[in-house]
Amino acid sequence: MSERRLDLAQTSVLIVEPNVRLHRVYRDALTAFGTGRISTVPDWDGALARFTEERPHLAFVEVLDEERRAVGLDWIRRVRRDFPFPSRAVPIVASSALTTSKTVCEARNAGANDFMKKPFGVGDLFRQITRVVEFVRPFVVDRAYVGPCRRTQAEGHQGPERRYAKQLRGGSILGQGLQPA
């Protein structure tokens, strides 16, 4: 099986991570992947300002602060609800060392595209990016939820509002930056 290659040269990634030691891990790995621009921010308020200024193509967001408050989940909800398109549809990967099913479910319900558990390796980070690139989900805007479609499989449901495999698979993230090579 051949190794996947991604062209990330035109891609901007925002890392929202209070543990500044992890900034280097993210930065080194993303640089090795050929990522065009990498921004790291240690706090969620600063991340909102950076998100507005830089309009990244992808964001990795720690969901819990030192007191285990769900500040990152609030950040994700705010981006999804308060920002205009295309910014609100930027893929967001939530991350945390606390990976209970409740935490993962809350991240998905907040609007995260995916969840990455810590600690993670370079391969895990690459798989997350590849997964977000190759599994582009339709974007949902509803009173109760704003974010990527939470259905993960196209098969099964045969009703009038089923999702087609073509809609759930393939394509690129908003047609910019992230592209399979």
Write a structural description.
There is one protein chain. This protein has a single domain (6-180), classed as Rossmann fold (3-Layer(aba) Sandwich). Strand 7 (139-141) and strand 8 (146-148) form a beta hairpin. The strands form three sheets. It has a five-stranded parallel sheet with strand order 3-2-4-5-6, sandwiched between helices. It has a two-stranded antiparallel ribbon with strand order 1-9. The chain has 181 residues and is of the alpha/beta class. It is 35% helix and 19% strand. It is built from six helices and nine strands. The two termini are 16 Å apart. The protein has helices at 20-32, 44-54, 71-82, 101-110, 122-134, 165-168; strands spanning 6-7, 12-16, 37-41, 58-62, 92-96, 114-117, 139-141, 146-148, 179-180. Pfam families: Response_reg. Residues 12-133 form the Response regulatory domain. This is Response regulator. InterPro entries: CheY-like_superfamily, Sig_transdc_resp-reg_receiver.
Give keywords.
single chain, 181 residues, alpha/beta, Rossmann fold, two-stranded antiparallel sheet, globular, disordered C terminus
Helix-strand blueprint:
Layout: E1 6-7, E2 12-16, H1 20-32, E3 37-41, H2 44-54, E4 58-62, H3 71-82, E5 92-96, H4 101-110, E6 114-117, H5 122-134, E7 139-141, E8 146-148, H6 165-168, E9 179-180
Parallel strand pairs: 2-3, 2-4, 4-5, 5-6
Antiparallel strand pairs: 1-9, 7-8
Q: List SSEs in N-to-C order.
A: EEHEHEHEHEHEEHE
- Rg (C-alpha, Å): 16 Å
First CA to last CA: what distance?
A: 16 Å
Which strand order do you get reading across the main beta sheet? 3-2-4-5-6
* CATH class type: Alpha Beta
Shape field? globular
Give a short account of the largest sheet. Answer: 5 strands, parallel
Structural class determined from secondary elements: alpha/beta
Task: List how many beta strands DSSP finds.
Answer: 9
Low-confidence stretches: 163-181
Taken together, the total number of domains comes to: 1
Mean pLDDT: 84
Please work out how many helical segments DSSP would assign.
6
* CATH homology-level superfamily: Response regulator
